[in-house]
Write a structure and sequence with these properties.
alpha/beta; Rossmann fold; about 40% helix; binds 1,3,4-trihydroxy-5-OXO-cyclohexanecarboxylic acid
Amino acid sequence: MTKVYVLNGPNLNLLGVRDPAMYGTETLADVHDRCAVVASEHGFELDFRQSNHEGELIDWIQEAGHAVRDGQSIGVVLNAGAYTHTSVALADAISGLSVPTIEVHISNVHAREAFRQHSYLSAVASGIIVGLGTYGYEAGIRALAHQKNVLRP
Ligand code: DQA
């Protein structure tokens, strides 16, 4: 079964508790359940993970890249949290293996502090979703499916 990876970076384990005015009241488990529904609609197996560690996220992106190359995965929906704004290494992992990656942010990072308005990931992402709340994850899975069918059939 084709896998879709949904990878979450630092502090996203705190969803629902962390600044609900900014990030909403849904927990990461709720997001997982929503993603599972959308993944199964498309016939994908969901692989949903969260880490507070940059190196672990890099390992997972590389894993996803190999799975895509082997025809076993459609790509990654990635909310890298604050690493978005700091990590050349995450960007290198995505571009190094040409991993189809939809960058997702729950909040509208462009309406926030200046340091959140730059992303190292956007230039190597195959799409970017910001400010749609946790619906962005669902949209991200649908976007990967659409890109696979339309752009990389
Ligand atoms: C975030 C935005 C980042 O700036 C922040 O560091 C996060 C969450 C979002 O989903 O809106 O951790 O990626």
